Amino acid sequence: ISDDRGERIQESFDVEEPMEISVTQADIEKDDGTGSGSITLESEGGTGSHSFQWSNGESGNPLTGLEAGTYECTISDENGCEESFGPYEVELATFTRDASSPRISIYPVPAREMLCYETISTEVIETSIRDMLGRKVLAGRSTDCIDVSGLSSGVYWLVVELVNGQTVLGNWIKI
User: Fold this and answer.
1) Residue 136, Cβ neighbours under 10 Å: how many?
2) What is the pLDDT of residue 123?
3) What is the pLDDT of residue 95?
4) Which of 78, 120, 129, 145 is the most buried (most CB within 10 A)?
5) Mean pLDDT, each 10-residue run in order, the chain (175 residues)
6) How far apart (Å, rounded) are the C-alpha atoms in residues 1 and 114?
């Protein structure tokens, strides 16, 4: 560098660039069929705070209220630097029953209008009917019978959540 009198100054500078923006962790919660999935990203690098723009048009972190599907995210820093990440897959929760699950009796099977059940506990938090993809199609606090007359014919799961934290499952057929 020189000034108007011709005097020169020579200096060396090291310019450090920030680390690239990266995702260090992605926590993905499954959708239970009611749009309950979520994605939470942990990011680092870049300059300053980060903003998150998602492929479904939403912004922010975490991204909540998600149906099962694939999502991508573009993360920007305060300098406008961007990096894209994903795809992130929000899966649909499925239900299985193993030998250690509490027992449930479901009747009549097949059912036409009313579906009744008996289990080891009468302390029910929620009773729901789910289709074979795990999507909740009916819900309530029934402790013995449920009106299923409005459901289409098919195979369904009866899911009974008990106050002791256990979930009782049984499949049944609607005609």
Assistant:
1) 17
2) 78
3) 57
4) 129
5) 79 83 94 84 95 96 92 96 95 64 82 88 81 85 85 90 80 89
6) 89
Which pair of tokens denotes residue 92?
């649909």
Query: What is the signed CA dihedral for 93, 95, 100, 102, rounded to 10 degrees?
Result: 110
| Nearest alpha-carbon partner for 41 in 32, 33, 50 | 50
Query: 167-174 and 154-162 as β-strands: parallel, antiparallel, unpaired?
Result: antiparallel
Which pLDDT score, from 0 to 100, does residue 94 have? Answer: 65
The 145-147 sheet, strands edge to edge: 104-107, 114-119, 145-147
CB 92 within 8 A of CB 66: no
pTM: 0.55
Tokens of 106: 């479901």
CA dihedral 96, 100, 101, 107 (to 10 degrees): 100
**Which pair of tokens denotes residue 108?**
């009549």
**Which residues lie below 8 Å from residue 20, measured CB to CB, with a gap of 6+?**
45, 46, 83
Give me 174's structure tokens: 């609607």
**What is the rounded CA–CA span in Å between residue 107 and residue 174?**
11
**In 3D, which of 78, 60, 64, 59 has the Cα closest to residue 28?**
64
